[in-house]
């Protein structure tokens, strides 16, 4: 049977919800089952509530034929998603961090500097605060502060990404801007996962044209959990790093290489020397700072010694060494952020050579927070610059944040609460051990940053807030005589840079809109308080 015939039986192109191409087959899922004609002529069945028609794929049906169906699906998906671009009013909405207008945002994607502009994309499920088939939304900036909405760049419209255009990075190669991402599909009644690494290219009209899969099969020894390509040109060729899981359920780094970005050869799985180190590694990044190589990834399944820390989705940065064959050796690793909400970060090199990182301020399993009552969840972190100093990774808010700063005022902190009237500010203060800073508080709600003199930990406690999921206490061991805090606050978040960026703790904080008090117990201190202005970025096309 021809593809045209299958489309006709399915009730026409506009009745096709998705297209799949399991081995040797073509399957279409229909929108309205009543429009299907002659169901006996094809294999027709309900798969998890979706009415699917399948036929054998004969050699005459090319990927290009399937792509035409994908284009029609994409047009409908864009139209549907465009109904979800009006930002909902919400007291928890950040003033200057990137958040989705509606729906769920997760990983940053495609963070890159290309021809004088910064590009950043986010994983998006437009229709609800749920992790379902993901889209990519495209933002652009000239200054790394003011982000302008561009488009819904990619939708889950094709046979190779029908259940999610999953995460990946961008490559700026001369005039070309390429996106590499993981196409996620789910097949049959058991929702068998099928994973392919795919590419898209920025066309002259500003749209992203999908090129289809560049890696269609799995390398030996791994499960379908292999995703989130990072592509880098080094040692005279392109390398692709992927987060992977071995068949005995160990997280690893899978590496491919290519001469031309199209044909990819598998090299090896790396990370044996860390094992066991979780059941899956997600979202690798790879970069150089001051001549040292670093690999970042999200190991899943690692447990913490601290009883308050129950989350298995973690963040790590490793200093690595590459041998002459390009092999990776993991030397020394650290947590990038010791707070609650930091995952799947990506970095880029700025025009003036700095390494700047953006993370997802959220975690994979959390889909219920107070902002969901207003139809959206999750946000990005502030951009942070990473430096390598005396054998340590140092992270600081990027200099560009200056564009948002109002006038700095001294603030005398004591047990007498001060009403700030805003939750979007920067605060710098140095505190002795034994002190306790209460932020974003009213009578009932508060965040407490306690410097516990006995245990020598900074305790970040959000148990007296409206948080609905996730841990409520994080403890960070520190050895300094006093503790210097540089805090960024933005309505529903705190990012705490500690001791000049030696450590960072990030957390979503939900307290009522008028809980804007700050107080300091067991000591008094002079702080610097700087209001941060709203970033003039648009969520939706203007
Ligand atoms: C990380 C992640 C990625 C995946 C994406 C899907 O948060 O699970 O591994 O590509 O999210 O949205």
Number of domains: 3
Q: How helix-rich are the residues, as a percent range?
A: under 10%
CATH superfamily of the largest domain: Glycosyl hydrolase domain, family 43
Calculate Rg over CA atoms.
Answer: 24 Å
Number of helices: 2
Bound molecules: beta-D-fructofuranose
* Structural class based on helices, strands and sheet pairing: mainly beta
Could you say which overall geometry the principal axes of the C-alpha atoms support?
globular
Catalytic activity: Hydrolysis of terminal non-reducing beta-D-fructofuranoside residues in beta-D-fructofuranosides
Enzyme class: hydrolase
Keywords: Carbohydrate metabolism, Cytoplasm, Glycosidase, Hydrolase
Protein name: Sucrose-6-phosphate hydrolase
Summarize the structure in words.
This protein folds into three domains: 3-61, Gyrase A, domain 2 (2-Layer Sandwich), CATH 3.30.1360; 80-400, Tachylectin-2, Chain A; 407-531, Jelly Rolls (Sandwich), CATH 2.60.120. 5% of the residues lie in helices and 49% in strands. It is mainly beta. The model has no long low-confidence stretch (mean pLDDT 96). The strands form eight sheets. A six-stranded antiparallel beta sheet has the order 27-38-29-34-35-36, with no helix packed on it. A six-stranded antiparallel beta sheet has the order 28-37-30-31-32-33, with no helix packed on it. A hairpin with a 5-residue loop joins strand 11 and strand 12 (208-215). The protein is globular. It contains two helices and 38 strands. The longest helix is centred in the N-terminal third of the chain and has 19 residues, at 63-81. The structure holds beta-D-fructofuranose. Beta-D-fructofuranose (FRU) binds next to strand 5, strand 13, strand 17 and strand 21. The site of beta-D-fructofuranose has 15 residues, from strand 5, strand 13, strand 17 and strand 21.
